[in-house]
Predict the 3D structure of the following.
Amino acid sequence: EAGVAQSPRYKIIEKRQSVAFWCNPISGHATLYWYQQILGQGPKLLIQFQNNGVVDDSQLPKDRFSAERLKGVDSTLKIQPAKLEDSAVYLCASSSSGQGTPLHFGNGTRLTVT
Amino acid sequence: QKEVEQDPGPLSVPEGAIVSLNCTYSNSAFQYFMWYRQYSRKGPELLMYTYSSGNKEDGRFTAQVDKSSKYISLFIRDSQPSDSATYLCAFILTGGGNKLTFGTGTQLKVEL
């Protein structure tokens, strides 16, 4: 089974610029998640999709972050404008539907904002 | 009080040692308990998964859950250099929409 694919692997931008990340989940997984992992911390959920609908975006900074999952498969996460504190690894994960189903993570996009 | 507390590490052990990694939690509504392993510059990888108190064994790994004390542990027997990674405990709430709450991670190094 192919894993969760993410691109790019690395991105360096200046503050106030915009950036977008892409995720392709495991085939057949209805639920897709974006997590932010700051160095030395555990991942924190930004947004969760069930098919193409948002389930939880309570911790997404909506003034600068946006995400979409068109057609219920691939997803993009955008930051505009970026701040220094957005430097982190952005992890995409997917799972089957249902409570307690394990999440499978991609290798993430490492963002550095200078 | 933080929802999840994890021993900070880093932890350095000799090859062959038994390793104990621990997390405490405060939310009694956590229903599912997981351990993820994260190698440097990689995403977290599910290692152990359980939803009941007691022990679950998989090869050299044993996950232990004590719901009454709100405490989970991961034991690694006969540790190998390939076990060197960051270990993250993770929890899912009852009715929580499958959202994972992670600990901060413990960095483990197994030395030859």
Notes: The CA atoms of residues 2 and 41 of chain A lie 27 Å apart.
